[in-house]
Each structure stands twice: as C-alpha cells, then as structure tokens.
Write a structure and sequence with these properties.
The protein is mainly β. It is 2% helix and 49% strand. The protein contains 1 helix and 25 strands. Strands 1-22-19-24-14-13-12 form a 7-stranded antiparallel beta sheet, with no helix packed on it. Strands 2-3-10-5-8-11 form a 6-stranded antiparallel beta sheet. The chain has a 4-stranded antiparallel beta sheet with strand order 4-9-6-7, with no helix packed on it. Keywords: Isomerase.
Length: 265
C-alpha cells in the first residue's frame, strides 16, 4: 500500500479521507474539504474527538449545543497568520456553514469526553522558528500536548522554498516513554505556487519500509512508522498540517543516529 494519497474530490467537497481502516492503523483520521460559500457540511456524532482547522476562509460552526460564528481569518494557508480551529469532544454532532469559500481540515482520534468543546483562537497558539540556514521552517502549534485533548496533536509547518523540514530525520514509533512515544501521523501538503512539488521520504532503520514520494498540492502522506523528512523544491514554498495520535498523548521523538551530528556540528 502506497503511503501517498492524492486528492479525490467527491460531491460533498471532500477530497482527502483517511481513516484507521483505510490507513491500516489504529488512531489517526484526517479529511480535507473544499466548501463553497453558503454550503453546509454535517458531521455526525461519533466516538472520535475532532479538531476542525479553518485552513482558509470563514465559517459558522455548530458543535453540540455550542455555536461559534465567523470562525477564521486568513484566506490562504500561506498568509503569515495562525489559523482558527474548533476542538469538538466525542459524542457531539457538528455543522459547518461556509460564509466564504472554505478550506477545512477535519482531524480525528479516539475521544473519551474529558475536555470541553471550544474555539481555538490564534492567540492561544504558540509560533516558533526551528532550524537555521536551509533547515529553517516556521511552526504553529494548533493543539499541542500542553493544551487539553484526549488523543489529538495538531501542528502546521511552513517551509521556505529550497529548505528541508522535519529534519534531521526523526521518528516516534516506539512506545518507550520517557525516551520515545508511539504516534501515527498524517502530513497534509500544500505548495505555493500550487503547481509545485516537494519530496518526502518515510523509512525505518532496517529499511523494511523505505518510500520516497514526489508530493503535489493537497496530497497526504501517511507515516505509520519510521523517519519522515521533507524537502521543498526550489521555487515552491511548502506548507503541511500534521495530525498525530497514539496510545499516549506525548510527542517524544528520536533523531536518526547517522544524521543527528548536524544538531551539534
């Protein structure tokens, strides 16, 4: 099974649909939608908690008994703004009404009802620069481990053209805390300009998994295990949204031992 999922639009506007069943794993779900202004999307209640990320556009969101109006601000993922998002605890139905054209990500993982549904506003999200030189990238922590949720971890990363990201290669596929955590992960990719591409490799120490992909706009890469660096091609800025979940809600990674030297030259 290829780890690369290309967009496949349907009548609802959904063009990515990752589930534990079709990914052949246990925890992470991801969907992406293009909604037209005035369109309504209904998501039934389930045993999954959700993080709805307004990647672009404005929407009214009903989640359970709560109504959140005019959620969103930026109109393109490459704007220098953090996104708006809504965390929805499991057991609550959701309705999204697009006020403008909307690019929506629906991130899901097992929920246990421990945390309230709420609007995640940009001022609650930490932003940071990581790396230096051609390893520089810009991170926005949408739903990190120090913010309440049962399973989900959600982060977005912008990488300038020609730079590397998720680098040096790291992994989080061993349930061996405090040294490493086990987290499945999806990468939802955008490119600017949109006709561009980037590269992502997913590989293990033993190379029993070793897949290198030319990734185009709106593709998703599955990371069930292994290291997973990204390289942005010259002339094309990279954006990706990461969704992670596993048995413990902690992100503890291990760098590839052959490449860790570059952190301490």
């Amino acid at each position: 099974m290829s780890l690369l999922r290309r967009p496949q639009p349907d009548a609802t506007g959904r063009y990515q649909h990752i589930t534990p069943d079709n990914a052949q794993w246990r925890y992470v779900g991801f969907a992406a939608y293009d909604l037209q202004a005035g369109q309504t999307l209904d998501l039934p209640a389930s045993d999954q908690e959700l993080c709805l990320v307004l990647l672009a556009g404005l929407a009214d969101i009903q989640a359970g008994e709560q109504q959140f109006n005019t959620v969103g601000e930026r109109m393109d993922v490459f704007e220098d703004l953090a996104p708006h998002a809504v965390y929805v605890k499991n057991g609550e139905a959701v309705q999204v009404k697009a006020n403008t054209d909307v690019e929506l990500a629906v991130c899901s993982a097992p929920g246990f009802g421990n945390h309230p549904t709420r609007w995640l506003k940009p001022e609650t999200m930490s932003r940071e620069q990581r790396g230096q030189g051609s390893n520089t990238r810009y991170v926005c922590n949408i739903l990190p481990q120090d913010q309440p949720a049962d399973s989900l971890l959600v982060v977005e990363v912008k990488t300038p053209a020609g730079n590397w990201s998720s680098y040096p290669p790291h992994k989080h596929d061993a349930d061996n805390l405090p040294h490493e955590s086990f987290l499945e992960e999806t990468y939802y990719h955008r490119l600017n300009p949109s006709q561009g591409f980037c590269f992502q490799r997913v590989f293990t120490d033993e190379l029993d998994l070793d897949e290198t992909m030319a990734v185009e706009d709106r593709c998703v890469v599955l990371v069930p295990r292994g290291y997973h660096p990204v390289a942005a091609a010259h002339g094309y800025d990279s954006y990706y949204l990461n969704v992670m979940a596993g048995p413990t809600r902690r992100w503890v990674f291990k760098n590839h031992p052959a490449h860790e030297w570059m952190l301490h030259p």
